[in-house]
Amino acid sequence: MRPNYLKYFDWQGWFSGVNIASVKSYQMPENHDRMKTLPFQKDEKKDRVTVACADGNVSVYSHCAYCRHCKGVRAGDRVALTPQMQVLNDIRRGVSADENLMNAAMMFNTLVRDGSAIECDDDANNGYLGLY
User: Fold this and answer.
1) Running DSSP on this structure, what letter comes out for residue 12?
2) Neighbours of 25 (CB within 10 A)
3) Kind of pairing between the strands at 117-120 and 48-53
């Protein structure tokens, strides 16, 4: 399988003018061998997804989505990098707009719905560290 594997329904930027050949949203993070895999604990009745973090059981939608330690969502045998980090890097370079950050948050929710675990690089067990 190619490292740049990208499914057509997983990417929100088809009409944004970005060259699709340059998108690498499904490559493994550089420090993948040192990361923890935190499996999801899904509660279908409450529509809630939690993981066992250093802070205890935390919501993936409100904590992991905005944590610097979150590096990706595991769906099957692949790891999808967090869209928020990619868009945040674009904002720092002056390329992206704020609405793309909102689209990235919605894309993260879609990845969590289809995924099974979070890839976390919190080796020191510090817990939540804000992204913004």
Assistant:
1) S
2) 20
3) unpaired
Structure tokens at 23: 């998108």
Residue that the structure tokens 């868009």 belong to: 87
Residue 119 φ/ψ, nearest 5 degrees: -95, 120
Judge contact between 69 and 56, C-beta under 8 A.
no
Among 75, 113, 89, 70, residue whose Cα is nearest residue 23: 89
pLDDT per residue as tens digits for the range 31-42: 555 678 999 999
Q: Round to whole Å and give the CA distance between 25 and 3.
A: 9
For range 8-12, the mean pLDDT: 47
The 10 Å Cβ neighbour count of residue 89 is 11
Q: Is 117 helix (H, G, I), strand (E, B) or coil?
A: strand
Per-residue DSSP letter, 40: -
Encoding tokens for residue 101?
Answer: 């950050």
pTM: 0.68
CA-based nearest residue to 91, from 79, 103, 80, 78: 103
Residue-wise pLDDT tens digits, 78-115:
998 888 888 887 877 777 677 888 899 899 999 999 99
